[in-house]
Amino acid sequence: MTEDQSGATTDGGGDRRDVVVPLRVYKTVTVFSTLIAVACVVGGFVLVDVATDRASAPASEIDVPVAIGGIGLILAGTVVYAFSTRFRTAEMGKSKDDADEPSDNG
Q: What value does the CA radius of gyration of the chain take, rounded to a whole number of Å?
């Protein structure tokens, strides 16, 4: 595992980048990113629900721009949550680094 000047660490062969931050920053990122992700996903489903008239509208009456906006909002929530999982504190270990687990567990 190597660490660059920004404090990000990388596994030798993977693309995953973990950003090591203080505990206070980690808590803040986790709380707000989760709130934003949940709001985006719920809002996206509400928009899809409105666009399809509670899934009862025929295909010709679906409001396509609103439906696409809803799907985009769901995807945005997914991206926010996935980005937030890159943060960790110095005290946090990775489960694959634990000695009690075999390295070939997938």
A: 20
